[in-house]
Amino acid sequence: MTEPKVGDFGLTKIRGLAGAFVNFGQWFVGDFAPVQHALVYVGFGYVVQAMPSGAELIKLEDASPVVKWSTDLVDLTDQERVHIALEARKLVGTPYSFLDYVSIALERLGMRSKLIRDRVEGSGHLICSQLVVEAYSRAGVELFPGTFPGDVTPGDLHKLLKELEASND
Fold this sequence. Notes:
Helix 2 (78-90) crosses helix 5 (128-138). This protein has helices at residues 16-28, 78-90, 99-108, 114-123, 128-138, 154-168; strands spanning 9-12, 37-43, 46-49, 56-59, 66-69. It has 6 helices and 5 strands.
């Protein structure tokens, strides 16, 4: 397992009902992946992750085991890494919303209204993958240029890492 660097994001599996729910949702929208959760490594053994109770700063050892890190796949300068970590820390306490999952499903099915997208965009709520994309975006690093951050799933982050791995071969 690669040791994370400040600003890297990690992908994890979630056990139990929550993991099954995310797995089903990703499968349903054609985005099945072996991961269901994402977090940002902010240094000194800590990560920031979105949770139903709100985004939290916790010790890496207390998080779900990371299956895959973005380390050495997403090309970042030291300054960008520090900025990503600072932005992730600023997101601690950000509320979570299950409406975001509904919005993603409706978007992938071509059925989302502008009203729902605007609600998700303006709510200030973030699910785990959105928190990763938001921290990177605030630091000036676009993981998915031209994509609404509210439409990104852990599966999308997994697919991005697989594409970056393939392009490095």
